[in-house]
Amino acid sequence: MAYGEIPALKGVALEVRAGEIVALLGNNGAGKTTTLRTISGLLVPTRGSVMLEDAPLTGVPAHTIVRRGIAHVPEGRRIFNRLTVRENLVMGAYTRSDAGVAGDLERVFTLFPRLHERITQVAGTLSGGEQQMLAIGRALMARPRLLLLDEPSMGLAPVLVEQIFDTVRDINRQGTTILLVEQNAAMALSVAQRGYVIETGAIVLSGTAAELADNPDVRRAYLGE
């Protein structure tokens, strides 16, 4: 993957197994968001491939990738500010025509009761934490097998960060696999089973969450020790 002549990703090989939470750690500009955008079809790699189980996704349109089971919660939330909470959530199910949409809407409201309280409120007037809940809920309405989360704690107060990550655990326990990009490395490793470290577009380290949390380089670079 490259931006013009500059390669943004040049050595990314990672695997997310069914049922896992996998953390992708790295500094700003390391290639974390680019990796997620490539997986979700928003960017097309110049070399290499993206696979979902045994099916290639390289070059597949983003909306088709959603139908195949991958939903992306982008950095900065990217909700529809002028639509209501309910309308945002319904938009998350735009690829679906099955009878389970109403049930999944109730699932989102169970995970995020605050959204049910704000169901008719215009999304742009929600707090930052509520908007993050809405962004995650909207992605869940696609009923993904793999959920891509890009910086879910960005800009949130510590108490809201705890709530968001408690819900991430709940979503995973309910059967959704998660690839998590997060600047708060300690929080990411506390919920993940495995992780990767990316630097300047290349994976430089991988291991279990416990192994990465104990690694001196990771502790110094990402855990503030």
H and E string = EEEHEEHEHHHHEHEHEEHH
Name the average pLDDT.
90
Give unreliable regions as ranges.
Answer: 1-6
Shape call: globular
CATH level 1 name of one domain? Alpha Beta
Largest sheet: 6 strands, mixed
> CATH homologous superfamily of one domain - what is it?
P-loop containing nucleotide triphosphate hydrolases
Question: Which features characterize this protein?
Answer:
single chain; 225 residues; alpha/beta; Rossmann fold; 6-stranded mixed beta sheet; 39% helix; disordered N terminus
Note down, in words, how this protein is organized:
The protein is of the alpha/beta class. The protein has a domain at 2-77 and 145-222: Rossmann fold. 39% of the residues lie in helices and 18% in strands. The protein contains 10 helices and 10 strands. The strands form 3 sheets. The chain has a 6-stranded mixed beta sheet with strand order 6-7-8-3-9-10, sandwiched between helices. Strand 7, helix 7 (158-173) and strand 8 form a beta-alpha-beta unit. The radius of gyration is 17 Å and the shape is globular. The chain starts with a strand and ends with a helix.
Topology:
Layout: E1 2-3, E2 6-7, E3 21-25, H1 32-39, E4 51-52, E5 55-56, H2 62-68, E6 70-73, H3 85-92, H4 101-111, H5 113-117, H6 128-140, E7 146-150, H7 158-173, E8 177-181, H8 185-191, E9 194-199, E10 202-208, H9 209-214, H10 216-222
Parallel strand pairs: 3-8, 3-9, 6-7, 7-8
Antiparallel strand pairs: 1-2, 4-5, 9-10
Helix pairs in contact: 3-6
